[in-house]
């Protein structure tokens, strides 16, 4: 009796969802962030529903299985626009974005009410290494440091530290591809000394990101600059949303998301920028890390390069932009702070350009060489720049390293624009009150 | 005697612990909503529903945790919050335990909190909690000096290390006016003790929940409640040390105390929502290089003020 | 001296707690646990001190030991192999000497407790121990107190000099060589490994400079 | 008596905290090994997390011990401060001045940075 009462109450909580992002799953993430009855959590231990959003490529199945099994009992899964694994029975699959929150709530409620069983464990229940207790009390392995006590070897690497040369243990591990502070799909092998990154090697590049369709159209025919610039600002705001969430400014991050959602030529950045400056985002957060040298900056391109002092911008070559007297603004330091200041300036600039362009009805003139929010696209689209992290991050403190990752837009851009938006999403976008996001 | 000196204090602290933790949860949701977080359902029911869900979820385990420490840490943190609440005076006579050295006892609660939070991060034997635990120690060992200076500052005019005396010494003028640097500095200590908002170095988002990233179910519930209870205990101490505790016209003492505690809580929760998380390295430098000299200044100010 | 039976019971319980946790320090494999067992032991002693009416010293004990044991745990973990005791090990070394020293210490202290003549001067109930401590510090013991300040300053400077690797003039060990194994000999350390480190170590440095 | 009350409160809250964890967990089976693996976003660790962890701020902790030792003198001092007046002020001023030298020195040597 008491238990059913408890479960009834439990079913009314905000649904804690751990999102596993597949390709283009970040759209669903942003949609859910603004859904009142959903709570997005960073650790599977804190979740009741595992959401697989978007198609997960086969090389990430193994990590997905691991994360799937890390949710504590009871939990359930929901597959959004991806094919559920056949051996999971009765797993719901959702296609439409606006049905997603409802489906998550239903899944949680049914789980609590006992109408749905907890998802089965996929992996076999055995320790990572075969091991039998060997110490006096059944603990331990062989000798002081040998063996695999409790199934895992002990940390014993004996590398000299890169800062003060003390020889202590370093910890090597692979993080991702479903770590919330990483770009979707990225996985890295990291060695830490204390909380300092000693080595970083990106093993799986983040999924290529899709840009707003207007950028793909712009490579075929002239498009209104207003539309292009709004899409650019929206892209940057989406990145800002992620970074602010990571920095512990949840409310401001939602503001950024809302601004992106309702972006029009009459929007202004002033309020959000003032709020960020006043909160001390540029002074208190981890902002000094990730300085790019000119070579690295050229490699990644786009706003990150301009934040490092390079004033390359393909918009300069466009007659339409010249009519609007566009000139790129730059920062000099090339660190995380400079990148966010650059990003805010560019959002601001984009909004101004969009306003002017709409008034004067200016169109782009170049189609072969356009500046995307991710960087220049001339012969080739912006390519994956995640190997850059291997050079930039060693030597940084953990929080600084992750703030740097958030400030760098490293993912490549998908090459064709056609298939990135399903008709359903376009409907949502164009449907007036259902104006969710692009 | 038994009733008055044992049962009543225990009941009082238990009541404050539960009600206080609930109020913190509700207030934080209200503030988040006011700043534009999407909300659905009743704010009043939400903490209960969440607690119920955590009770139905199974507790997680890691491969080779330090079991005893892992389960003890949340309970110990709760116990420290209870001890903190026990030294808070509600009126001249209504105080759970009126120890002669209650100010020092509160100081040791702060120091022991560091131990417990470190233990919570350490005992999971997992990377992200471990980093959270170590980060917290850097913070905990930095704020402790500031807290000592500030609390010695309020002990000066009271000529006592007892919170009841500290409150009584504010009859003419509250310490928040007499020692203007004190309360702001002490609020920073409070954010640190409960690793709330800008000083949430232990359970931060970049560590996927830090020391709490591997726990689920009932242990997580206790940890969350303990954290909220610690906020309440802290606001009680801050209200007695700086806002004149039970002193105030018209209303009865305990009511004044409750109002003042709510005010402190509100400020803490607001700060938690408005400020970004401070980088750990910068946090240590800030504490030692900026805030410590300021608390020095506060003490000198308090000393001169007490002599005049 | 008149006190209730409660105080006696409390004393016995606390003394047992202090001894048992003190013993556990040497019976656990985990450095962190050992540190915090020691902390519990100290806290029990602190409560006994409060029972002895040393209210300030007792509470100060909690305070000091909490900080000190945390720092001790940090350093134990940093410098001991197998800090969590995942592998079994022996926490006791030089047992014979230790046992001998323990017995001697116990006998001496026990003899003092049993045979020493304690002064029988009951203090008046109105005496405030904290206040008298403060008066003592500002009166006769002022010189000791101030010299304690100097000693602590020396400690601080010593700590900084010994432990701080990167001073304001750059890395402390920069350009220094390990001493030779024999007077006038080559710097200690394996030369082959040094060469390897040239490659390996500098490899990292390139990244972040 | 105060001590006894405090002890009661301590035991009660500690007990409540443990009971809330223990009661529902009595009947729960041990989670599977894959569940017990540390969460790393789908990644795996090479070893146990427990290790000789490089505490980056270790000089600061040593400095704190020295400083805290000194702070403990200040509590009794605070109690008699008003009574003693100017003398106490001067004495403590001298004491703190000596120790501030230590802090300033440590700061100049970069103790408050991650080593």
Automatic annotation (TrEMBL), chain A:
<dbReference type="GO" id="GO:0048038">
    <property type="term" value="F:quinone binding"/>
</dbReference>
<dbReference type="InterPro" id="IPR001135">
    <property type="entry name" value="NADH_Q_OxRdtase_suD"/>
</dbReference>
<dbReference type="InterPro" id="IPR029014">
    <property type="entry name" value="NiFe-Hase_large"/>
</dbReference>
<feature type="region of interest" description="Disordered">
    <location>
        <begin position="418"/>
        <end position="438"/>
    </location>
</feature>
<feature type="domain" description="NADH-quinone oxidoreductase subunit D">
    <location>
        <begin position="288"/>
        <end position="358"/>
    </location>
</feature>
<dbReference type="GO" id="GO:0051287">
    <property type="term" value="F:NAD binding"/>
</dbReference>
<protein>
    <submittedName>
        <fullName>Ni,Fe-hydrogenase III large subunit</fullName>
    </submittedName>
</protein>
<dbReference type="GO" id="GO:0016651">
    <property type="term" value="F:oxidoreductase activity, acting on NAD(P)H"/>
</dbReference>
<feature type="region of interest" description="Disordered">
    <location>
        <begin position="120"/>
        <end position="141"/>
    </location>
</feature>
<dbReference type="Pfam" id="PF00346">
    <property type="entry name" value="Complex1_49kDa"/>
</dbReference>
From TrEMBL, chain B:
<comment type="similarity">
    <text>Belongs to the complex I subunit 1 family.</text>
</comment>
<keyword id="KW-0812">Transmembrane</keyword>
<keyword id="KW-0520">NAD</keyword>
<protein>
    <submittedName>
        <fullName>NADH-quinone oxidoreductase subunit H</fullName>
    </submittedName>
</protein>
<dbReference type="GO" id="GO:0009060">
    <property type="term" value="P:aerobic respiration"/>
</dbReference>
<dbReference type="InterPro" id="IPR001694">
    <property type="entry name" value="NADH_UbQ_OxRdtase_su1/FPO"/>
</dbReference>
<keyword id="KW-0472">Membrane</keyword>
<feature type="transmembrane region" description="Helical">
    <location>
        <begin position="72"/>
        <end position="91"/>
    </location>
</feature>
<dbReference type="GO" id="GO:0003954">
    <property type="term" value="F:NADH dehydrogenase activity"/>
</dbReference>
<feature type="transmembrane region" description="Helical">
    <location>
        <begin position="253"/>
        <end position="271"/>
    </location>
</feature>
<feature type="transmembrane region" description="Helical">
    <location>
        <begin position="6"/>
        <end position="27"/>
    </location>
</feature>
<feature type="transmembrane region" description="Helical">
    <location>
        <begin position="176"/>
        <end position="196"/>
    </location>
</feature>
From TrEMBL, chain C:
<dbReference type="InterPro" id="IPR042106">
    <property type="entry name" value="Nuo/plastoQ_OxRdtase_6_NuoJ"/>
</dbReference>
<dbReference type="GO" id="GO:0005886">
    <property type="term" value="C:plasma membrane"/>
</dbReference>
<feature type="region of interest" description="Disordered">
    <location>
        <begin position="173"/>
        <end position="209"/>
    </location>
</feature>
<keyword id="KW-0812">Transmembrane</keyword>
<keyword id="KW-1003">Cell membrane</keyword>
<feature type="transmembrane region" description="Helical">
    <location>
        <begin position="6"/>
        <end position="23"/>
    </location>
</feature>
<comment type="similarity">
    <text>Belongs to the complex I subunit 6 family.</text>
</comment>
<protein>
    <recommendedName>
        <fullName>NADH-quinone oxidoreductase subunit J</fullName>
        <ecNumber>7.1.1.-</ecNumber>
    </recommendedName>
</protein>
<comment type="function">
    <text>NDH-1 shuttles electrons from NADH, via FMN and iron-sulfur (Fe-S) centers, to quinones in the respiratory chain. Couples the redox reaction to proton translocation (for every two electrons transferred, four hydrogen ions are translocated across the cytoplasmic membrane), and thus conserves the redox energy in a proton gradient.</text>
</comment>
<feature type="transmembrane region" description="Helical">
    <location>
        <begin position="97"/>
        <end position="118"/>
    </location>
</feature>
<dbReference type="GO" id="GO:0008137">
    <property type="term" value="F:NADH dehydrogenase (ubiquinone) activity"/>
</dbReference>
<keyword id="KW-0472">Membrane</keyword>
TrEMBL record, chain D:
<keyword id="KW-1133">Transmembrane helix</keyword>
<feature type="transmembrane region" description="Helical">
    <location>
        <begin position="89"/>
        <end position="107"/>
    </location>
</feature>
<dbReference type="GO" id="GO:0005886">
    <property type="term" value="C:plasma membrane"/>
</dbReference>
<keyword id="KW-0520">NAD</keyword>
<keyword id="KW-0813">Transport</keyword>
<dbReference type="GO" id="GO:0030964">
    <property type="term" value="C:NADH dehydrogenase complex"/>
</dbReference>
<feature type="transmembrane region" description="Helical">
    <location>
        <begin position="57"/>
        <end position="82"/>
    </location>
</feature>
<dbReference type="GO" id="GO:0008137">
    <property type="term" value="F:NADH dehydrogenase (ubiquinone) activity"/>
</dbReference>
<keyword id="KW-0472">Membrane</keyword>
<dbReference type="InterPro" id="IPR038430">
    <property type="entry name" value="NDAH_ubi_oxred_su3_sf"/>
</dbReference>
<dbReference type="Pfam" id="PF00507">
    <property type="entry name" value="Oxidored_q4"/>
</dbReference>
<comment type="function">
    <text>NDH-1 shuttles electrons from NADH, via FMN and iron-sulfur (Fe-S) centers, to quinones in the respiratory chain.</text>
</comment>
